[in-house]
Amino acid sequence: MEIYVVVVMLLLSVHQNGITQSITEPTTTTQLSIAAVSEEIDSESNFTTDDYLSFETNSTEVPNSTSVGPTEGAKAQSTQLNTKSSKSNLCTCNLQRNFCDINCCCDEDCSFNDKQVFSYCQPENRHYDTRYCDYMKYIYINNTSVEWHVNQNGLFCIIKSNLPPSYILQRKQPLKTFDDAQSEKINKFSFQNHATSIDQRHEFDRNEKFRYGNSIWLVRKNGIVKFQVPNKFITNRCILEEDVLAMKNVENVCTQTDISEENPYLSLKTFSEHIYVISAPNLVNMSKYKHGIFEDCPRNVCLPIVPKICDALSNVCVDVAKNDSRAAVKCSFRLREYKNDCVNIVKTIEYNFYHGNAGFSNVVVLATLENITSSFGRKETEFTQKFSVNFWWNNQTSNFSENLSGNPGYLIGKPILTAKLVNVGNKTNVSLKIKRNPLKFTENFLTIPENELGDCVSSEKAHLAVEFGYNLLTKCRFWQNIPTGNRTVNGTEICRKIQKSILDLWSVYENRIIGSFGNANANVLSDWLKILLKVRPDSVMNKTFGSFNGKSGHVFCSGLVSHLIIDIYHSKIDIDELMNQEKILGVSYSFDTVNKSFTFHNHTRSVFFEMDLKTSVVFYDISGQKHKKMVDSPTVNIKLPHDFFYPFIKVDNGVFRMKSTYMMWFNIVFLLGCQVLINDI
């Protein structure tokens, strides 16, 4: 029979009068609810052990603690609480390296002053075994600079045990082939997002602190108003304005149908001129606010919005002078043609708020402008605009490579991490390296073309990010001119140029890799997965053929990709105390192809092609049933020495014979052994 010993001590109970502080400051503690651990072992799964990952757990021991005997009574002890998030130093809400994440109390980049803008502490999905004494160290959060202690006395808890280590069998291993990925799609469903709401105040309150989730206030000609940006509702039209909350990024896309100088949302002046942002409500001197107007509001309280105009392609931005003509829309009509030509129309607006722990310090708005021609009196013209609001710490710069989508597991709604796997070195010494451009969003996260007024658009400014957990189905029109030059038209060559343009639009490259976790490290190759392809891109190109008919002037292409199918397989796994961390086990790409005919224009020596492209993204949860098992007891293999039966001698006929002397001594030893056993019983 196996015997396991469990050493117990008095459970550490917390009393308000037992908290010791090193300095006289208020202490804020938040108690987290901890679920009890189920010790039941589920039935065996159909998965093999190769599909699972084992996490061994050594015997538990609490350092610097003394067990209390049953005859000694309850003696109080004092053990300093550990304010770190976990034993493995993982902080699940820390999604920016080297910068403080808002409301992330376990982020070591956050100073005591930074935490003053927090509204709450983001919870962590952790599991602690409440039978053991050391779990008490992790269920309290000390969000102050005060060092405090908890007096421990009360009920019994386990301080040390010699139970065998346990492990968890769970679905962990990445998918290896495209066929393996396809087999996991059967009877799978994607999950839904659980939206959260924030309490919003509707009146300006001077006593309101500068914190996450509070309203942002502007000083305009009509008084103090909330900061809002246009948004759509039911349709794609910009028909309402959405409140922007402090330190909560916003990105809205909607369309304008009134293309004229009278529409204020088309002009840059509307978003920057005669508008001041209140840095923090508690800095406002209301005695100078009379009849809806501020008298001599200080520049550190009423911050002007600094406008800049950016080039859509190069991302180079320049300051806008006070009387810059580009800040206003100008339109001219061509009555005979029913056309309306407008210049300097706002295409994108990007607000950047820079803040410390006491309030905003600077506000910059970046705008891109376009010149468009619309029809009037006939079909209504739609013009798509994009409005975004970003919040940055004062010393923070844009670095997409440092942005995480979870720590470690992916979070719902966060973008999928991507990178490129490149070869470095010379011919004799080649090594693999993960490459990510920190200045380009599309090289750090998985994106697909965006539908902009029906057209496929994919660039650094215009794209649709694939967010974890959200299925997508898009359709857009892709068109381009393929010049042929003065040489003889080659149908296959033209069709393969069209095919390459389509694959480049989707960023289908064989060396593209996907981050398995939301915090995938660019220096660790095992953190990344290769995309599983049904057909490799070079094979797609080689299977594309074309023919040119000189009489009809048409180019016929076969095997053009018209539909990209992206399937993402993920599983919930446990890492130490962290539960249900989302890990991507595989990403597969497959294509649907069509045959198309395009017109060759002889006067321009080019082929104009236009075709509809579809993109679908589906998430599949392939989490296996988890099994908690104990390590098997050691097996004892008893082997006797080769001369253990020495008195027995083998003769030629195969019969064992024993000499008389040896037989006598054997009988004596046997009888003595039996006597000892009888006495013991």
Tags for this model:
mainly beta, six-stranded mixed sheet, 7% helix, disordered N terminus
The overall strand count is 39
Question: What best-fitting shape do the alpha-carbon axes yield?
Answer: flat
Number of helices: 4
What is the percent of helical residues?
under 10%
**Average predicted local confidence, pLDDT:** 76
In percent terms, what proportion of residues is strand? Answer: 35-45%
What can be said about the biggest beta sheet? Answer: 10 strands, mixed
Radius of gyration: 35 Å
Class of secondary structure makeup:
mainly beta
How would you describe what is shown here?
This protein is 7% helix and 36% strand. By secondary structure, it is mainly beta. Among the domains are: 184 residues, no CATH class; 218 residues, no CATH class; 33 residues. Strands 9, 10, 13, 14, 17, 18, 19, 20, 21 and 22 form a 10-stranded mixed beta sheet that branches. Strands 29, 32, 33, 34, 35 and 36 form a 6-stranded mixed beta sheet that branches.
